[in-house]
Write a structure and sequence with these properties.
about 325 residues; mainly alpha; about 0% strand; globular
Length: about 325
């Protein structure tokens, strides 16, 4: 195996094990034995089923967006794209490798790089926008999270998060954002300006794709939401497996908030932040020992299992030097 890849995998595994051990160590108490003895095995099967449905909707969203661009992906390549994202997101800073891995597989499937770039960008934005749109729901059904904020501020934040995605697309389509961006970039070097406008160009093309295909985009957005809901439902399934009765909507609200934060964390795959954030959000709802165990189960099923599948698929398709290919983006554009 390539030494660089082997080293990265070893470091990633060591970090995952250390964080998991730390979570169990700092949350384990005598009550854990009683709760573990009450754990229902059926919850594991139900969690796997929920996760599988979530991945299916993730795949159908990818198919819908690819058709939007005028291209096609068969189910084999969809499977590769979805799981390669998990693999390289977990071993690259800021999850940056996930998008490049998707581009590599889509190019291999015959989708031109410019169109693949748009699909990957819209796919990522949709997940983030869905979580933003769900924030008002989080604030409404779980007021304990924002009880210290005045009502007017909560209303303002909700309106802002709902309207911001639509306003962003509108300003890009009308060209106003480009004018504002040009004024803002005057303070930077020419090289930095070029990089910013290349990024903006991809973002703008994604906006045009959304603007001119509203109904198909709505379908993909619904598929995106269903995918996230089923994947996050693994957590309430495990909590119910321990015999705990916590309202489903409260659990999901906190999962929406946590995963929105994870999209902006610099650590690979949100490692460390995910487990710590889970304990902060759920220790007030369930015993801390169960919060610790559930955090590990959530990460194992929703991240580490897909990571393993993605690793096998990616290394088999691109070889053990895949990290080198990811680091050199020219290999994708050639």
């Amino acid at each position: 195996m390539n030494k660089q890849l082997f080293r990265i995998l070893c470091v990633s595994l060591a970090v995952i094990v250390c964080i998991s051990v730390a979570v169990i160590y700092f949350t384990f108490d005598i009550r854990a034995v009683n709760y573990l003895s009450m754990f229902k095995p059926w919850s594991v099967l139900l969690a796997v089923l929920s996760l599988a449905i979530g991945f299916i909707f993730d795949g159908t969203r990818l198919i819908t967006l690819t058709k939007l661009s005028g291209e096609k992906l068969d189910y084999k390549h969809v499977f590769n794209v979805v799981f390669s994202n998990y693999f390289l997101s977990l071993i690259t800073p800021g999850q940056g490798g996930g998008g490049l891995a998707q581009l590599m597989f889509m190019k291999k499937a015959g989708v031109p790089v410019p169109k693949a770039t748009l699909v990957v960008l819209v796919r990522t934005i949709m997940s983030i926008v869905f979580l933003f749109v769900m924030l008002p729901v989080v604030f409404y059904f779980d007021p304990a999270l924002v009880g210290w904020l005045p009502t007017w501020m909560i209303v303002f934040v909700c309106v802002l998060f709902i309207s911001l995605p639509c306003l962003t697309v509108y300003f890009m389509i009308t060209g106003r954002m480009e004018k504002w961006l040009a004024k803002f970039c005057r303070r930077f070097s020419e090289k930095t300006q070029r990089a910013i406008f290349l990024w903006y160009r991809d973002f703008q093309q994604a906006g045009f794709l959304v603007w001119h295909n509203p109904w198909k985009v709505l379908r993909a957005f619904i598929e995106s939401g269903l995918s996230l809901i089923f994947i996050y439902s693994v957590v309430p399934v495990f909590l119910y497996g321990f015999g705990l009765q916590v309202p489903y909507y409260v659990i999901m609200c906190r999962m929406f908030l946590l995963n929105l934060v994870l999209y902006f964390t610099p650590t690979p795959g949100g490692t460390g932040v995910a487990e710590g954030g889970f304990l902060v959000l759920f220790s007030s709802l369930v015993p801390s020992t169960i919060a610790g165990v559930t955090a590990i189960l959530w990460r194992f099923f929703c991240e580490y299992v897909p990571f393993t599948v993605g690793a096998v698929l990616t290394i088999r398709s691109f070889g053990a030097d895949v990290i080198t290919q990811i680091q050199n983006r020219r290999n994708i554009d050639q």
